Amino acid sequence: MIRILLLLCFINVPAVFASDKLTIAAAADLRYALDDIISLFQQQQPNTDIRVIYGSSGKISTQIRHGAPYDMFFSADIKFAEQLYSDGHAATEPQLYALGRIVLWSPRRNMAGIPLSQLAQLDFNRLAIAQPAHAPYGQRAKEALQAAGIWQAIEAKLVYGENIAQTAQLAQSGGADIAIIALSLAKFPELAKQGYQLIPAELHQPLTQAYVITRHGADNSVARQFAAFMAAPEVLSIMQRFGFEQPDVAKTNFQQSAAEQLQE
Predict the structure, then answer these.
(1) Is residue 53 included in any domain, yes or no?
(2) Alpha-carbon dihedral sign for residues 19, 42, 220, 29
(3) Most buried pick, 104, 169, 190, 254, via CB within 10 A?
């Protein structure tokens, strides 16, 4: 009888030591910044178990549509988050969290001071960009190259990464001499050994980034907590350290208008 009573007591005690789980799918430009944000969050919520899958926004969006068990989605282009919400695959409206920037970067040469318009004059064999078909950073790289008037001159030298992190890896491994990557990656110490050149935002559509809680994560309390945590001052400081800008509606509209005029 005593053993039965003890067993019943253990059954009725809440599992306070069990971890609360959260699965995040995120654009690859967040690889370093989000790792730091999660580490900070887990200092305050030590019983949380957070898993992150990084990839291109377009491919992640497709995976969510096909039932991938992601609780949150951080997109490098707000349009993917908006489409998921409008189609019923997201439980919350898209929440802006950053504006991304692109840079000219190479692991073997200093690109600082070299404007994009002079890229075609350099002696190199391969230029890496993310795949424009499903990676927002790749699409913006293509837009910038076209606006600078050098797309046709360098198109034959292009190699493509599946996402922006893989694009940087292509250059690191010798698969490309130069790459157009996210500023957030170029600021990571391992990649920051060589200088980079910031590409003017006016040359491309803005990289307006947003996150949603997916339909799968609608009842996940950790997802709600993490979403609220994204507005914390220490999180904004981390994002700023990695080169992300805070969204500004007027600025975004100006950039979009300028980019459209350049492409006409």
Answers:
(1) yes
(2) negative
(3) 104
